[in-house]
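Sample 3 of the quickstart, ligand guanosine-5'-diphosphate:
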Amino acid sequence: MKAHKIIVIGDFGVGKTSLIRRYVLDVFSDQYRATLGVHLYKHSDTIPINGTEELVKLVLWDIEGAPLPGEQMMRYSLGASGAIVVGDLTRTDMTEPMQRAADMIEARLPGRPMGFALNKCDIAPVPDTAEIAALKDRYGAFIACTSAKTGDAVPALFRDLTLRIIGGKAESV
Amino acid sequence: MSSVSSFDAHIILEGIRIVAVRVDEDLIVNEVVGDWCDIPVGEDVRDTVPALIGMEEELAQEVPYLQLPFVSLGMQHEQPVAISVQRDTGTGHLWILLRDVSEEASVQERLVHQHNSLAIAHKELSAARDAVLAADQAKTRFLANISHELRTPLNVVIGGASILRKPRKTPLSNEDVQAFSDDIHDCGVLLLQLVDDLIDLSRAETGNLTIYEEWCNPSAIITEIIRLARGLPEAQGVDILYQPNGSEPELFADPRRVKQILLNLLSNAVKVCGPGSRVFIETAIVENGDMTITVRDTGPGMSSEDLTIALEPFGQPNAETRSRGTGLGLAIVARLADLHQAEFNIVTAPGEGLSATTRFPSRRLSSLNG
Ligand SMILES: Nc1nc2c(ncn2[C@@H]2O[C@H](COP(=O)(O)OP(=O)(O)O)[C@@H](O)[C@H]2O)c(=O)[nH]1
Ligand SMILES: [Mg+2]
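Result:
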């Protein structure tokens, strides 16, 4: 069975590692440890696709938050089937870096689906701004308000992206 | 384009933490050179090196380009590796090279760590610098204030004296002469007090203010300073109330300095209060046996911001309550209290009066009768 590569990108500390670890291992830690280089997580999930439960294999790339030089980012994004862009709801400048990341994905991985995670919704309200609506329209992406801490919307985020990679229809999100 | 054969690889890789993996077009492992990590032969290389998942197209190229400088090997595996690929031009075999980069990783980790510690140190340093700057500003303010405080009475002295000594056709009236000499005298007294205060303050700052301790009687001291305070012109119409309870213990302290503390507090109190108001002096023995002497007024009080200013040398928070003191009073009181290991504490709020308490530790007390 083919496995799919998904890259997870976003600034330092927005919660990329936490989201992946919540999804794959169902754990959360308050401690912050910067990711050096790239960590890979293999994960198998059963997702309802067109009415039947199907097993999918994923490899999630947790990419360090430092603004990577273009060439290095290209190496890491090579062969990815989709991308998750993570933003931090507690930051005032959340959308700007997300847009930059999404533009980069569009350029490197044209036509691949993307998901946006507005993370840390357990500690910050979700702003109902035009900016967020614009993000959704512009990239046609699924936007989830996630919490790696409580697990809110975390599986939905990854499953929606997987469904769109496979080309199946979401049952309900 | 360089090429690699199994033979070369054996020689190159001995003792080095590199593993070379030869795979077929389906990415099944045919040969592994080096034993630094476990890559099973006959299985899909993507199972043990998941970083290769999604790279199939690239790996199928005649000259594949794949350089991953720093990825974890796979599974929830922390082992960092650098991955590169080369095609053996002779046989067309694809070699995947895995190199252990733990050392680079730990160097990088140390760098990140050092960077973080530096950031913390930088924060602490800038806090320290801010404190130094603040102290420097306080010193500048102090110097500006002191020159002002010295010049004002000196100008009165010089101005008054020059009027008196100036030859004139019609001599000054007796009243005028009296008024000018009064001014000169008062300003001289104020200047002397200011200079004394400054000497005290600078001695306290440099740790050279000595106190001469002996057993003394607090109520006798209080009674005496009340007498002195009643003589102040501002004390006219102010009721100063004190009820000695007759059983105060003796206090081991410098009586001159205790008087200085209380007179400072009391004269501040009568100055801000105005006629018709009352000022209280109270002594008490508190729970742990310490003795407090409190000077409490019913004046306008002040906000905590103003209080902070008032405790600085020359800090007089607002011009209206500014009076003829040297402006060094509270700063000196705080230091004198400190020399007696006494706590000096002010409780005040706008409209609620002000109460200043000096708390002498119990070890400085003894019962009057033994
Ligand atoms: N409250 C809360 N904290 C989070 C959440 N996600 C991550 N964090 C915290 O944010 C910090 C950075 O998370 P991490 O996943 O390491 O960020 P990364 O640099 O993007 O990988 C850590 O202290 C996490 O515990 C969340 O959903 N809610
Ligand atoms: Mg991380």
